[in-house]
Amino acid sequence: MSNDTPMISRRGFGQLSLAAAAAAAAVTPALAAEKGEPIKIGILHSLSGTMAISETTLKDVMLMLIAEQNKKGGVLGRPLEAVVVDPASNWPLFAEKARELLSVDKVAAVFGCWTSVSRKSVLPVFEELNGILFYPVQYEGQECSRNVFYTGAAPNQQAIPAVDYLLSADGGSATRFVLAGTDYVYPRTTNQILQAYLGTKGIKPADIMVNYTPFGQSDWQGIVSQIKAFGSAGKKTAVVSTVNGDANVPFYKELGNQGIKSTDIPVMAFSVGEEELAGIDTKPLVGQLAAWNYFESIKTPANKAFIKQWHAFTKKPKRTTNDPMEAHYIGFNMWVQAVQKAGTIDHDTVIDTLIGIKQPNLTGGVATMLPNHHITKPVYIGEIQDNGQFNVVWKTPDLVPGKAWSPYVAETRNLIGDWRKPIDCGNYDTVAKRCVGTKHG
Amino acid sequence: MTAPIGTPATPSSLLYLDAVSVTFDGFRALNKLSLVLAHGEMRAIIGPNGAGKTTMMDVITGKTRPDTGEVAFRGVDLTRMDEPAIARLGIGRKFQKPTVFEHLTVRTNLLLSLKGGRQAFAALFARLTSDEAGRIEAILARTRLAPHANRMAGALSHGQKQWLEIGMLLGQDPELLLVDEPVAGMTDAETMQTADLLRDINRTHSVVVVEHDMAFVRALGVRVTVLHEGSVLAEGSVEQVSANPRVVEVYLGR
Amino acid sequence: MGKEGRCSFLKKRTKKLLFLRSRAVARVSDRRRGALLFFKKEVLALLFLLFISPCHAEDPALAGLRAPDYDSVAATVTDLAAHRHPRARAIITALRDGTLYAPDEGPGLYILGPAGTTDAATGAPVSGLDPDSLSKVQQNNRVRIAVAGALALLDLSAPDAATRREAAEAMVAHPDSGLLPALTTALAQETDPPAHAAMVLARAAALLSSGASGQSQQAQLDAVAALRGEGNQQARAILLGIPNPPPAVRDAARSAIAAIDLQLRLWSVGQGVFYGASLGSVLLIAALGLAITFGVMGVINMAHGELMMIGAYVTWLVQGATTAAWPGQAGLGLALSVPAAFLACGALGIAIERGLIRFLYGRPLETLLATWGLSLVLQQAVRSLFGPTNVSVITPAFMSGAVKLGGIEITLNRLVIIVFAAVVMLALTALLRLTPLGLQMRAVTQNRRMAALMGIRTPRVDALTFGLGSGVAGLAGVAISQIDNVSPNLGQGYIIDSFMVVVFGGVGNLWGTLAGALSLGIANKILEPLAGAVLAKIIVLVLIILFIQRRPRGLFPLRGRAVES
Amino acid sequence: MRLPWRPLSGADWAAVCVLSGGSALALLSLLPEGSPLHVPQFAVGLAGKYLAYAILAVAVDLVWGFAGILTLGHAAFFALGGYAMGMYLMREIGTRGVYGNPNLPDFMVFLSWDHLPWYWYGFSHLPFALLMALLAPGALAGCFGWLAFRSRVSGVYLSIITQALTYALMLAFFRNDMGFGGNNGLTDFKDVAGANLHQPGTRAALLALTALALAFCLLASRAILGSRFGALLVAVRDAESRTRFIGYRPEHIKLLVWVYSALIAGVGGAFYVIQVGIINPGEFAPGNSIEAVIWVAVGGRGTLWGPVLGALLVNLGKTLFTGLLPELWLYALGLLFILTTLFLPRGVAGLWRAAKPAGAAEVTPEMTSADHEAVP
Asked: Domain C270-564, what fold?
């Protein structure tokens, strides 16, 4: 793939290794001399280890976007140069690599991370060194850092609309819910928010079953049969699945084999996208649901062009696109716009300029960077089709602005994030009228 | 403690085995074996391969638990004790294949064997006492290993390793020594020196020797027990057992 | 009468006729369908009228299918079936199969079959349509429910008894009081006992569903009794959901639910054993290869999981090749991948033994490190070759779904894996016991030097033994491709469990591996509902650690002096 | 008595090198940015991390290289030490967390816990946390070792159950209900003993302290190995049953070194977490333990300086290659392990020895039993 992108440097960190620096210099393209020093963009996605399965695609899409931008002449008349590192699904290594990107390579922005823990691991580094991180994955919220731009969905941009759909007549008017998730922070928080939310919708605690499984759970027989039993209480039952990407394949295979059809017990997933479905025969799963802000199957000119470009770039005509890829597309273009508007890559200026930047998304709407560093997104509910794609069966009428803090958690009920002056705080208590905690202020 | 060579078994026996049986996966290694050893006695045990010699040693030293039967040392039941406990009770053992601590010097090998503290924690703070140093020098001299004292044990020749192991037994100073094929791989001269050494040791210790080498057994000149298929076939002086037709049939005759 | 008016008149007329006809259909049997010709003729005439009339709206009964909202689509589907629209089956089946298309602009509905495009309303072939101007009529779950219900209703009078039974069973899943008349009619005519039983159940379900008002108490009690006899989760769900039952019915339902619960609990024990056996079989097949390489040869092969992963990728490749040559033959691909994976992994295993492991005999712990390095290389190699994402191995039809054995649901893919693991286990045992190679393997394991002296070429036996173990790992990969992700990380998830099984069962003993796998599988599944999946796994691990303290050499240790020293 | 035992001779030098090198780096990092000798903060953090890894490597070497127990679970002790330190650092955040809750760490607020679990008591005090960083791994090692060695579990069996141990702990710590932050672990630390963790001065001091701790571990280990106990350790490794027939209890000897090694690993983990800034259950992953063994193998087991060198080399390589060859570095790492075991069975330390003709003829190792490890 690197053949397509002349601007990828072989990585080096000069001060520690002269040899490495020499190797890096050897590949520095001639373009730099013509148009000035390249602007470095850090790509911090795992290329090995357990998360490589999801993150490698994001590295590729970033390389594509950067190559594309360079064809347009780069930014500020300078070419962009991708600095790719492999944090190897190892969380401390994420922090180390983030520090390396910021302090050794002095990158203008970093696009990276997938898991919450990787983001949590690099967060102090970005705050200490005042870097810019674009984080493209749907997450649990409850965070609002000045140095991070959250281009994935906050809970109110995915979980809440998805449950609304299940409660609606179209979604089957479910009155009994199974909240199944992998045991980590994102499902825990999301389920906590959902439990509170379902309570406000009149669903009794007895009608909610919460189940957590370990990472990489591969034997789902017992749990699926528990779900089945829970669903046989005479009430329309739905499953909300925050099961982590990799464990979904065996989960869905078991659902299919135990004959749970979408018409009996629909399963609404938050972590199952086109990429995950590529690993399964989807015929038994037709009709199962997923909530995202983007689906490959959405037919807009922008999306068609993006998919075409992606296939051409990867030379794989069947490679799927997915939601976090769109998030990077939006984030990257917002960053380009902000840099062009500000006329500099200075971090503070760019951070301030980014707020209010509007970037058309791939599905026909316009994403706006909000003061809380989240963006506006449409929410789509898609049904799995037999070709591994999703058919959009419902969408929010308007774009939904991302909320960093959940109104369903007592401590954060009154919190908002607003990085504009005069508030200039990620966790501002609107009742007490003060910034809570110190660092995020 | 000192007893003349060849003293017959007395009721106040040192070691007492009665009807000991051991089975491995259906194979009877020991079959109702009984043996009595008197204080200060030296006994040679002979027998063809698979007769149960080594298994008998294993049973005495606690490595193998007998299925049935009694094993007692100075009246103490050994079947419920493990190897270190039995060793501390006063039974030392020399293996068929010399096992020394190859990556330690000869001197350190001997130091570790010296009678005395056996607590792991205490070893952290143990200092070499002059008494210990003296005993080590004495053993080095007695086993003719003084020139090699600072060599790694792994670098010794086979015979030297045998002697080192015997030296370690001396350091341990047990009441009873079990010696398994001490002269395997030795030259004739070394064999005779070893016999002398064992007789010398027997002045102060009781000894059980397992050996194939009849010349060596003859040189020891002690009472002989012949094992066959896990039980005692014959017992007596070398001449007596050599004359026993059954012994000749199963062992010597082949 | 304006255009609108005429259209609406025609529509109303058609609708009424359709309704009348459906009533008639409901009353008469198949054989007397001919008498309905009149209706058919009139409908056709009307359709013709509609066709030539300026409104050119198609059959009004079908217009709803093109509506943008799924409600209308679902309602139309239900209507079509309820009113026995002549094209109902064709259209609804097309909708279900995703071959029903509507033009982006203007009226009309078309079925894009393999034989060509037909007009959905008439069944007449159509030509000259631009496929790009058509879009598929989309479904959501509501539409799917309506489709299933509609087809079931149509099938209720199918000539084939099995189809009728399936139709009735489908109605139990989504009881609808609107189906009561149709069910009552069908029931009266049903002669096939299984179909009859299913219809009784479907009728009971419909009778107790919401919306079925004004039913006599006796009818309700009969329905409860019927469902109680069925005694499964579906019946339980229906009984729990009876709307506003009279006291007698409520009590009957309660006692029925209690009876069903007891029954379900008893069955769940059996179900748990099946789950445990199934997990055990996966553990067994994953550990068998290791039982050879580790157990028999004493080689700690940390790349064992990667060999399994490669076996799974071989399955994917073979399946891809066969389905390209013979589309739809996923089962053939899977069958072929069994020998292919065995040979590929076996060959790789021999290469590993010759190239790496033979230099490390007698140093088991260093073998561990080297093979760990090898596992990293293999993982990354597969990642470079095939990409880091999952690849899709298709589950053939005969391995999809489940069969019921009383109250136990036996999922077919798991059943096949259990049988497969058992066959591999038996084959391995036979190979070790009965063949000269097996004899040589055992000889070399027990006394290498002696075996060499007796003329056995020990290096060859070593390579073959390791190859055998690796080949079995490949077989495990084939099995696991049917239940888990096929990705470069596949092996990582199984390696620790496999080692646990072998160590727990006792090294060097295939039957120990079997016992170990089964007991760990069942223990896990017994603990899972009590403690949750994570804690269950932790508890099992701790139990293994404690067990190894009690029996340092596993369940079935090898005995003897040689082993101890 | 000092035993004339060569493998220890490098330990003093290694301690001196580590201490002087670490302090030098720390001091140079405090020079102004423009200075030609200035060491970037990034390098200070890395060096601190490597040294913490080196402490773990020494711990692994003590049991593997000197006592012949191949552990595949030492990361468990390392991580436990790390968690103890992480809990202290969490409590140090106080009201400066995202929610400003003075009583609960952020992740507990996040999960709507209303009170601090009892096992978090005391962790607001650094001495207590340091004590726990030793006690927790020590106690675990004590229980596990007592059970395992008493029943004479050895060789690969022991290796595999150590792996089971760390795997079980990993699964347990992943559980959010455990109260250790689940998958996200403990992070976002602010300061230690009042000193801001993001200040260059604190970083430099921590690096120097880590170097000091490593040097201390080296010297203490050297003293232990040089004592009669050290000789016993080698005796147990070479011929365990022989020690038993002399009257020693090998299980006690092994247990003692095992617990000591776990304590050292805990210290390493504590220093690791302060400098890396995060501890998560991933640290318990069996792969981490195996990697630690590989540092030792690369450096040369059975010497004290070998593992230090191995940890530094492998991790430096990892840092370089994950940046230089992000798509290929796993090949490099994998091949390194294979080639080391094939061609450098005694690691880099073995190369060194081979280069010195005097030392080469010292011992002729002989393969005796299955568990026997060839060590110079």
From this structure: ABC transporter involved in vitamin B12 uptake, BtuC (1.10.3470)
